[in-house]
Amino acid sequence: MLKVFSDLRDNDNQLYADVVAACKAEPDSNSWFMTKTFGELKQAASFINAHSWEIDMQKLMHRFTSYEWTILQSLLQTNKPAKLEAREQQCKTAGQKTERFVKHWLETNETRMQIAELQSQIKRRKLKSDFDEGWEKLQKIF
Prior knowledge:
Number of helices: 6
Number of strands: 0
């Protein structure tokens, strides 16, 4: 597992779930979002190859992100050194992009929370002023 995700999971499961949900919500996340390292994916592929008759691939699918699943399928189909190196480089690049996104999301999370709080205060004030305005109109009638 990428260090940033293992640290998040160890410290705060809710924050980990929020970060994963935010990553999955990104429009192009299926081309870069990953939580596991290339070594872990390679290890999973070799295990699946060794036990392919016992394993239902569809049951494993939910344990991986769409990018990880694509890489895993690719690793299952080839064992050429040049292609393995290319996949490893792709995973490193995707891992770096994931880490940058997570760090940015964590840095801006507090700001987003403050904005949401201010917006909720504004909504409450509007409702209160609308109520007061309606009350005043009602008082004028009587």
